[in-house]
Amino acid sequence: MAPAQRCRLCRQTFFCGRGHVYSRKHQRQLKEALERLLPQVEAARKAIRAAQVERYVPEHERCCWCLCCGCEVREHLSHGNLTVLYGGLLEHLASPEHKKATNKFWWENKAEIQMKEKFLVTPQDYVRFKKSMVKGLDSYEEKEDEVIKEMAAQIREVEQSRQEVVRSVLEPQAVPDPEEGSSAPRSWKGMNRTSSASLAHVFQPSSFQLTAALKLGPATSSRA
Questions:
Q1: Which of 53, 117, 55 minimizes the C-alpha distance to 87?
Q2: In this predicted model, what pLDDT tens digit does every residue of 100-132 receive, in sequence order?
Q3: What does the alpha-carbon distance between residue 181 and residue 172 come to, in Å, rounded to a whole number?
């Protein structure tokens, strides 16, 4: 009787020697296992010519199981606050260790030889990916610069609106004189009470804005 051997795909011990890998059950388990990994590998291979760079999120720590090497592999490649999608998996698929393990796995399990190339990345393809990754990083930086410019423009617009509100409230209002038919500015004391009440309804001013308003007051009165 052949010595007992353990099949990690079928998760059982068998005593039929090498004949087990040719069995219908083993070939079915092998096909299903490869098909589970294939979508991730195909998505990674698409990134070779069009690498995508995104802002890092915790989901980018996701791993997948490499059937050939029998280990977990990080799908994406992250550094700081940036992530290159499928960079980790492509790096693994292009490594000499993965190629050696894949050759061994295919020989031991008698997998279809035509499928093996789908689970390997050649050194030439990995060089293409690195060039594509550089372009992806440049494109990401350009998009980030545009976002920063838009945010800066919005901040300036909001600040300008706040300053206009301050000026409109603090400027003395002309009150018509019923006897002379002319206009004269209201007293600073009365105007100051009105301005304070109006500002309270508009927004809560910062210390910097209050200082600016107090400096503006005497200048306005002297003009009157």
A1: 53
A2: 999 999 998 888 998 999 999 999 999 999 999
A3: 18
Instruction: Please state whether the predicted TM-score (pTM) of the whole model is above 0.70.
Output: no
Query: Residue 169: which of 217, 206, 215, 207 has the closest Cα?
Result: 217
pLDDT tens digit sequence for 121-177: 999 999 999 999 998 888 888 777 776 777 777 787 787 777 777 777 777 665 555
**In 11-101, where do the E strands start and end?**
12-14, 53-55, 63-66, 71-74, 77-79, 82-84
**SS3 assignment, position 65:** strand
Residues 6+ apart with CB under 8 A from 113: 106
Taking the CA of residue 124 as centre, how many other CA atoms within 13 Å lie in the half-sphere pointing to its CB?
Answer: 0
